[in-house]
Amino acid sequence: MIVKADWLHLAVLLAVLGGCVWLHGFPAQPDIDSHAYLALAEGRRAEVVQPYAGRLLHPLTVRGVLSARLVSSLDAAFIVVAFVAAIVFIGTVSRLLRCSVTRFDQSLLLGAPILSLYAVNIHLPDLFFAACLSLLLMALSRGWMWLALAGIFMLHLTRESALLVSAMILMLALVKRNWRLAVGCFAAASAGLLVAGWAAGASKTNIHGLNGATYLFAKFLANGAANLLGVIVWSDSYARQFPDRYSLAPLWRMTLPAGLTLGGIREIGIYRLAPEMIVTTVRIMLTTFGLLPVLALRLIRERGLPSLRSTPLPIMLAALIGALFYVLAPFSGRSVDRLAGYGWPLFWLAVPLLGADIMKRHGYTSRWFYGLHFLCCWYPVVLRRFGLNWNPWAIISAILCGYALGWLITDSRHACAFNNHGQLQ
Predict the structure, then answer these.
(1) 334-338, Cβ contacts within 8 angstroms, sequence gap of 24 or more
(2) Phi and psi at residue 64, in whole multiples of 5°?
(3) How far is residue 64's CA from residue 59's CA, in Å, rounded to a whole number?
């Protein structure tokens, strides 16, 4: 009976995801990065630039589905892999939450725009990466060492973001003196890096002709300037690669000194000022995970930061990597809405698990909280979907009001305002 109930709950969650995908809508055109993963899936690795060439596991899985003749087209294979990844991710996260979050609240928690955004962008590895990471967290929670090491290896073949995951596992394993996990993590991560490096070696260099470390550093600076300061950085290499996006003369430019070599970059400057990008970044960071940042702040206020030694390793790992991914999202790329979603381990696992007792102080507190959370997540998406008033300042103001109400709901001094029937007194 328990197994049947679990399968029924998974079916309900998938149905919720289907409704969320419809409400979110499909993109008018594929993401700008899609061409790289399509080329990898078609076996044209030599045409792909770094760092995309090292992200080979997702497109290779798609190619395997197509080679097995399970489907007749490449896009259909991408859809199959995305559907399986959604089942794995939702089923695994639901299983990890089952003792702390009710099934109804899980539907409100996982029925989020960010998950539907991952689902509709079938060519990108975001949902696949999330599924692999969820399996890794499940393996660590169950003590399945070999599956955990396989998960680390798979993550490194999916995205270079796995470096943060491996670094946090290694640090926590050393703090908790789990030498077996520390050695295994180092070996699995090294193997993954070697294979990804071998795959990238046969590809084109990045668009600026920089080495890997310099490219990542420059990318962090450029993205941070755009998303947090509204300053669009320009370079002659950008203008050559993307003439349509950089068709105008920059506001300011300078030629690099003769002795300074930065790959194919000879000139840098400021293309334009875009203060609206700051507002967009603030809106995304406030709405991607609804009211869950409020619950995180409530936990910190009441208990302080979780202890590295006493907190179970999977929960501490989820908190650390989720926080890092979330904070680094504005620096990692221009698609802040997708990148902020990589903070899901913090907000969909660590915070609900650590804050379960706060939700249980009064019977219906969690229903009120997660219901309001659901509204805050979907409010800007619904406005955009149906062509309603799309004023970012109005959205931010409404979300901050939701934050204030969420803070009151989770406060023991005010939670008594919600009686056992879930109604305001």
Answers:
(1) 334/223, 334/226, 334/227, 335/31, 336/227, 336/280, 336/281, 336/284, 336/285, 337/114, 337/117, 337/284, 337/288, 338/114, 338/117, 338/118, 338/121, 338/124, 338/126
(2) -65, -40
(3) 9
Report how far residue 327's alpha carbon sits from residue 330's, in angstroms, rounded to the nearest whole number: 7
Q: Which amino acid is at 373?
A: H
Alpha-carbon separation of residue 382 from 21, 25, 142, 376 (angstroms): 12, 10, 39, 10
Beta carbons of 388 and 338 less than 8 angstroms apart: no
pLDDT surpassing 90 at residue 24: no
Q: What does the alpha-carbon distance between residue 186 and residue 174 come to, in Å, rounded to a whole number?
A: 11
Instruction: Parse the chain into domains and list their residue ranges.
Output: 2-201+288-416, 212-275
The two structure tokens encoding residue 385: 């979907």
Q: What is the average pLDDT value for the chain, to the nearest integer?
A: 85
* Cα–chain center distance at 399: 21
pTM here is 0.90
Q: What is the pLDDT of residue 422?
A: 41
Task: Find residue 272's DSSP bridge partners.
Answer: 232
pLDDT tens-digit readout, 278-336 = 999 999 999 999 999 999 998 888 888 888 788 899 999 999 999 999 999 999 988 89
Taking residues 113-131, report their average pLDDT.
92
Query: CB-side exposure of 412: number of CA atoms within 13 Å?
Result: 9
Counts for the chain of helices (H) and strands (E), in that order: 21, 3
Q: Residue 260: which region, alpha, beta or left (left: phi > 0; alpha: psi -120 to 50)?
A: beta
Residue 304: predicted pLDDT: 82
CB atoms near residue 347 (< 10 Å): 27
